[in-house]
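Incident review: delayed structure delivery

Summary: a single-chain prediction request sat in the queue longer than the usual turnaround. Root cause was a stuck worker, restarted by the on-call engineer. No data loss occurred. The affected request and its eventual output are reproduced below so the record is complete for anyone auditing the incident later.

Affected input:
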Amino acid sequence: MSILFSENNLVLIDHINFISKIYEGVSHNKQEKSNYTLIGKLFSINNSKQKGNKKRPRECSQIIEEASHVKQMYNDLYEKIPIQIKQNIRDKYNLLETSLVRDLSRKYFECTLFDHKGLNGGNNSDGPLCCKVKDDYFLIPPKARFLCGCVKEQCQKLKTNKYDIVIADPPWWNKYIRRLKGANDKLSYSMMYNEDIASIPLKDLLSKNSLIAVWCTNALSNINAVKNIIFPEWGVEYVTTWYWLKVNIDLAPLCEFSAGCKKQPYERVIIGKVGEVKNIPCDLLLASVPSALHSHKPPLLDLLTPCMDVKEVKILELFARYLLPNTTSVGYEPLKWQHISLYEER
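Output delivered after worker restart:
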């Protein structure tokens, strides 16, 4: 389980614990088994000092109201988390300063560049595996499948399948990726316009009753696109918005809540559905110490799966950069954060 603490619509997630549980008893080619976890330094953000935000503020009543609401939810969560949990998190992650974590992230981003386009594979067993793919070793969780390549093309290959849960982390246009692309074209993925995302043939892949979760930036243009363009094209009804609050090891937000259209310490997950899906948590705040690896979002399976009233939930993730158990992952780099160099034995 990834959930450390939960009360009403307030949740604290432990990403690294989720990963550690998945990779207990990893089988190798020689039949020996090992326990792996992600390198702890990737979750060791221990200061929240921020440089001055150079982005020109643009007052927006919707953002101001929302930030105030998320801040209040955070205050409620912080007050309710037991002291022992707070102390355990600090003891677990207090390893590096934020700037050093970022340097480490850059290093791993650059050394995990793989050309797996057209490669399909998976793990049909009930246990995790360490497998050689081309010349490198990767950890593959149980009952996981991956398809490497253009999301639109790979979805066409899956057209005979139906999925109960779909998670998508689209490559929205942003300055960070543009900077990477300017420095080295190999260090970034192709960003997509909202209309291109909407044209992904997802509609035919959804079960009669299905749940859709889309990671979205705080840009109003992208938020509106999900609700008014992407969801309608996919045949999906908007339900609610969840907020992912990024905190340091002291459980303090990574930056201040902004009073305008500046950087916020949270991102959002826009939730939609097809058919009858009950008991979807509304207006949920999930907090976690973020991974330093780019686009390495916290796991949502423990929050989404209980909403589905089916015996075996079928899950699809689009634009994946790491694998999840019992999930089909699609994208150019679904194996990127599975490389053995990112893990340590325990």
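Verification: DSSP finds nine helices and 17 strands in the chain.
Action items: add queue-age alerting; document worker restart procedure.
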